[in-house]
Amino acid sequence: MAQLQHRIDDMTDDSGFLGLVDPHAYTSFVGEDWTLEMLFERFESEIRQQTMLFWGTGGEEQWRIDLSDSPVDPRLPVIRQITGPITVTRGELIVVNLETVTMAAQYAESAVDDDKDIYGSGIELPNGDYICTVTQLTDPEEDRTHEGPDFHLQLIAGRTSPWSGVAWSEL
């Protein structure tokens, strides 16, 4: 595999959640009258099926996100870190925010990858199983201490245990 290096400069997050999704395997539509509980049950199901990883960010920000097959730069401060599995079925993953996922959950004609061109959040990868290490490098409640990304997502081929739900969330 060619070296993976991808940067998303301004991923809007108005709800405190981001995720990584296989847009070709993730079942996005929940129903026009979904509730937050229904949506998070869907997330948990999709996380178990390895079509999604979803996590709380600790705040509402414009995030800089690096995706790489290399580990996070050891000079950057690690606020928190978690590793989980995701499967690529048709050559692509996308980074999403909660707003995009909720639109796709409510409207059958919306898709979870509708905003990928706006954010530049589509990542081409060979099909297969991946281990994704999500590292948060800034604390939204503290002053920024570096010029690097806010999140680093390392993707390497392999398998690991699935998450039981949305990481870093109290919902």
Structure report:
The chain has 171 residues and is an alpha+beta fold. It has a single domain (5-157), classed as Competence, DNA-entry nuclease inhibitor, ComJ (Substrate Binding Domain Of DNAk, Chain A, domain 1, Sandwich), CATH 2.60.34. The chain is built from three helices and nine strands. It has helices spanning 36-48, 98-106, 116-119; strands at 5-13, 17-21, 52-56, 61-68, 80-88, 92-97, 122-124, 128-136, 151-157. It has a five-stranded mixed β-sheet, with no helix packed on it. The chain has a four-stranded antiparallel β-sheet with strand order 3-2-6-7. The longest helix has 13 residues, at 36-48. It is globular. The mean pLDDT is 95.
Q: At the fourth CATH level, what is the homologous superfamily?
A: Competence, DNA-entry nuclease inhibitor, ComJ
Radius of gyration: 15 Å
Let me know the number of strands: 9
Structural class: alpha+beta
From the N-terminal CA to the C-terminal CA, the straight-line distance is: 37 Å
CATH architecture: Sandwich
- Number of H/I helices: 3
Output the CATH class name: Mainly Beta
What sort of overall outline do the alpha carbons produce when their principal axes are compared? Answer: globular
Tell me the CATH topology: Substrate Binding Domain Of DNAk, Chain A, domain 1
Largest sheet: 5 strands, mixed
Q: What's the arrangement of strands in the largest beta sheet?
A: 1-4-9-8-5
Low-pLDDT regions: none
Overall mean pLDDT: 95
